[in-house]
Specification:
This protein has ten helices and no strands. It is mostly helical. The chain has one domain. Helix 1 runs antiparallel to helix 3, helix 3 crosses helix 6 and helix 9 crosses helix 10. Bound molecules: zinc ion.
Length: 247
């Protein structure tokens, strides 16, 4: 696997973990009628699991502005060109795609697609899962066609597994995932233009050197532990989901 050190990137794994954690943490909140009234949604166990996958994948998404990162290699020239153009349009790495506006826009766009254009949504879901898998480091070193094909097969399987699930919540899951990414990058040097197009960058660099010791030995274990706790509560079945979503 490629190791890029000290260049201001947070690892894909960290982003994906933070997306899954944000989702599992949000599930009990969005179920609360007391807070959200008619907007409250209580999800089945399989919806919780599907949402975690979508949110983890979406937490990689803002890095599609980086043309020679691992993400750009996901589906060969297709994603390379996509990332190159998105990078150009968004003003370079860690610009427009690392903002609240991007998170909200992606969430709304996916909501519209999932509700009205289900085939387009499946195509996007395929991309989200594919990029997510690559982002967490699921590739064979130096073996490009094989990596892309394996990724493709897994992403197709994920889309097929999810095609019957009521995914009316995906807009929220995608927006939350993108936002989790932005928050994560804000914790590293360079920060993010959270309020883009306003020109302010926000950085609270508590994670001093990315791909470094703090991230590997503190941030990732803490995120994993949080996910394990919340996931155990949610994957044990509908009874536990009711307990989980009761808030
Ligand atoms: Zn980023």
């Amino acid at each position: 696997m490629l190791k890029r050190r000290g260049n201001g990137h947070m690892m894909g794994k960290t982003h994906a973990l933070s997306g899954a954690l944000a989702w599992l943490g949000a599930v009990p909140v969005i179920a609360q009628e007391r807070l959200l009234g008619d907007y409250a949604v209580s999800l089945s166990a399989e919806q919780v699991a599907a949402g975690a996958v979508v949110c983890a994948g979406a937490a990689i998404l803002p890095d599609i502005d980086h043309h020679n990162g691992r993400i750009a290699n996901t589906f060969g020239p297709i994603t390379e060109h996509m990332c190159k153009w998105i990078g150009k349009l968004s003003g370079g790495h860690r610009q427009a795609t690392h903002s609240l506006l991007f998170a909200v826009a992606m969430g709304l766009a996916m909501d519209v697609l999932a509700t009205h254009y289900v085939y387009a949504w499946w195509a996007c879901l395929f991309m989200i899962v594919g990029l997510g898998l690559r982002g967490v480091g699921l590739d064979f070193e130096g073996k490009e066609p094989q990596s892309a094909l394996a990724d493709c097969a897994l992403a197709l399987a994920a889309v097929w597994l999810m095609h019957n699930i009521d995914m009316s919540f995906v807009g929220f899951a995608v927006g939350l995932g993108c936002f989790a990414h932005v928050v994560g990058d804000c914790l590293t040097p360079r920060g993010c233009p959270v309020f883009w197009p306003l020109p302010y960058r926000i950085d609270v660099p508590v994670i001093p050197r990315t791909d470094g010791k703090v991230e590997r030995w503190v941030v990732m274990p803490v995120l994993s532990l949080g996910i394990a706790v919340l996931a155990v509560r949610s994957v044990l079945g509908d009874a536990t989901t009711q307990w989980l979503t009761r808030g």
